[in-house]
Amino acid sequence: MPARPRMRTRSLALSLVLLAAGASAQLSTGANGGEGGPGASARAQPQDVPQFVTFTADDAIQSYTVEVINHFLAERRNPNGCAPKMTYFTSLSYTNYSMVTEMYVAGNEIADHTMTHAGKPNVSEINGNLRALNAFAGIPVSDIAGFRAPLLSWDGDTLRALHNASFTYDSSMTSASPANASNTDAYWPYTLDNGIANNCLEQPDICQGRLKLPGLWEIPMYSTFGESTSDIHLMDPWLEGRDADEVLGWLQQTFLQHYNGNRQPFGLYSHPIHLAINYPGVTNPDAIRNMLQTFLDWVQSHDNVWIVSNKQLLEWMRNPVTNEHIADVEGLGCGSPAVPEDENICNGIPVNMAGLLNRCDFAAFPWQTCYYCPATEPTPDDPVPSPREGDTRHTLPSDCQTAWFDPIANRCLCDSDNCAFTDETRPIGNYSTNLGGNTTGSGDSTGPVRAEATAPSKFNGGVPAAAWSGAALLVAALAAVVP
Ligand SMILES: *[C@@H]1O[C@H](CO)[C@@H](O)[C@H](O)[C@H]1NC(C)=O
Ligand SMILES: *[C@@H]1O[C@H](CO)[C@@H](O)[C@H](O)[C@H]1NC(C)=O
Ligand SMILES: *[C@@H]1O[C@H](CO)[C@@H](O)[C@H](O)[C@H]1NC(C)=O
Ligand SMILES: *[C@@H]1O[C@H](CO)[C@@H](O)[C@H](O)[C@H]1NC(C)=O
Ligand SMILES: *[C@@H]1O[C@H](CO)[C@@H](O)[C@H](O)[C@H]1NC(C)=O
Ligand SMILES: *[C@@H]1O[C@H](CO)[C@@H](O)[C@H](O)[C@H]1NC(C)=O
Ligand SMILES: [Zn+2]
Fold first, then answer.
1. To test the ligand 2 pocket, which listed residue (114, 115, 124) has its Cβ within 8 A of the most ligand atoms?
2. Is the Cβ atom of 102 under 6 angstroms away from ligand 1?
3. Within a domain: 35
4. Which of 7, 193, 411, 447 is the most exposed, fewest CB within 10 Å of its CB?
5. Got the DSSP string for 106-164?
6. Which residues span the domain enclosing 135?
7. What Rg do the C-alpha atoms of the chain give, in angstroms?
8. Residue 139 belongs to some domain of the structure
9. Minimal CA–CA distance to 59: which of 35, 90, 85?
10. CATH number for the domain including 315?
11. How confident is the prediction for the chain on average, in pLDDT?
């Protein structure tokens, strides 16, 4: 970590006081109290930090949606030469679980979007998604860190449920003013240690610091602006313009509000199905697809732009470094598992798993998995049903990475420190089992039981206070340079 940006005490204190005020948290305005003064020349400037761009997708993962993601990202590279990663907020109705495994093993982030796409979801919708993704897509529980509410419909109970289940972050809140406006609500991601600061008009009961959830992060969704600051577009803005060129103008102008301003992350929030080719009922998306490629090419022509998953973004927030030291951020590396190509195991890597998928023939939507097929469809109230008769495949154990596990032989191929892994359990609501347990089929009942109290402290308090203050410092530092 580089030397922390120096700044006058007054500006930091003021920014943090404002943060504590929750709704009125203002990170980007006159907290600097004037120019000059000791240390002024040593402050971090916005152009010293990366411009992060998050490409997120929501809903079911299917062939159509994977094609869309690959179309936009597969050929791109970040400044370090690694392929960009993205975050998929996954709901499970109509999801093909084997494709979730593939997305994950390729390095993308799989996040929770409830099982059945329920707005203001109950706890079973949220935690059931986690459990079913673990059992049937082989995603380690500890790697399912984020949540987005379907229809962006959430309330205080939604956030409390996330906090209870040790999620790292929510990304359901919205920012509705330009990143470079003087009273913007386009905050950098923040923890709810001091309460929520977005959507306060709609959520007066929990704003103003009334609901504090220490350690839980919020990654606001940043709007795209059209003709004026009241012409606000959030998800799939490309569906809302008169034509693709008009939307290109919106995206470019909004990107510059971030890039030339405080470098808050810029987001593209997609429902990939709307960009799918030949999907029944979807208007031909060619013009929009071309426009988005043009936009991403243009974005990547700027210096220090990184296309990242939300998880990668938070990794940087917890240990913010300047562009000069960006190579130190491990999570931004390429990190592909080096499983030998001649291994024939069902692990999410196409060359290894050819011919090994298990087909679960449910009437509503037949899906594939590397793990066992449940006797009945997973539901919020029974997210991990026991195996159908005669199906002896295993679920992912807690001590093997997805790419190295053979669910047919119940064997972990990893035999070196380089691939060693432990899926540390975390308390999930009412469940007390190790959700990543080495089970043979039958759901959580045979998993090694670990009580909530023994969950590693890493998951109990969420983000260590020091990490938060590091991020706050940097945010405050950025605040201090904007007039
Ligand atoms: C599910 O994904 C696999 C690849 O992981 C693919 O072979 C299969 O056709 C897909 N099934 C459906 C129903 O889309
Ligand atoms: C949670 O909500 C879902 C519908 O979204 C429902 O099917 C389920 O029964 C509910 N579970 C509980 C415990 O309330
Ligand atoms: C969160 O956990 C607390 C303590 O176990 C419990 O009382 C509360 O009902 C939970 N809230 C939600 C929304 O899950
Ligand atoms: C914000 O950014 C836009 C786009 O670059 C620019 O036109 C506008 O002047 C900026 N506004 C402020 C207040 O700096
Ligand atoms: C799972 O548990 C069984 C029986 O306890 C054990 O033989 C096997 O080695 C374990 N598998 C893994 C991958 O840990
Ligand atoms: C929690 O688990 C207990 C014991 O299994 C059960 O009786 C209770 O109904 C569960 N509560 C919820 C909210 O699921
Ligand atoms: Zn959705």
1. 124
2. yes
3. no
4. 411
5. TTPEEEE--SS--SS--HHHHHHHHHHHHHHH---GGG--EE--GGG---HHHHHHHHH
6. 50-332
7. 22
8. yes
9. 90
10. 3.20.20.370
11. 83
Residue 15 corresponds to which tokens in the numbers above?
A: 């920014």
DSSP string, 295-331: HHHHHHTSTTEEEE-HHHHHHHHHS---GGGGGG-GG
Identify which ligand lies nearest to the alpha carbon of 273.
7
Q: What is the pLDDT of residue 277?
A: 93
Asked if the model's pLDDT at residue 304 lies above 60, the reply is: yes
Whether the CB of 395 sits within 6 Å of ligand 5: no
Ligand nearest to the CA of 115: 2
* Helix, strand, coil tally for the chain in percent (to 5): 35, 15, 55
Residue 470 belongs to a domain: no
In ligand 4, the atom with minimum distance to the C-alpha of 181 is 13
CA distances from 273 to 18, 99, 220, 247, 250 (A): 41, 15, 23, 18, 22
Distance 96 CA to ligand 2 centre (A): 22
**60 residue type, one letter:** A
Cβ-contact 200, 207 below 8 angstroms: yes
462, pLDDT greater than 50: no
pLDDT of residue 428: 63
| Interatomic CA distance for residues 104 and 135, integer angstroms | 14
346 belongs to a structural domain: no
* CA 402–ligand 5 middle distance (angstroms): 15
Alpha helices by DSSP H, listed for 138-241, are: 156-164
Q: At what angle do helices 310-318 and 465-480 cross, to 10 degrees?
A: 90
Any idea how long the chain is?
483
Number of domains forming the structure of the chain? 1
Q: Which atom of ligand 2 is nearest to the CA of 379?
A: 7
Identify which ligand lies nearest to the alpha carbon of 431: 6
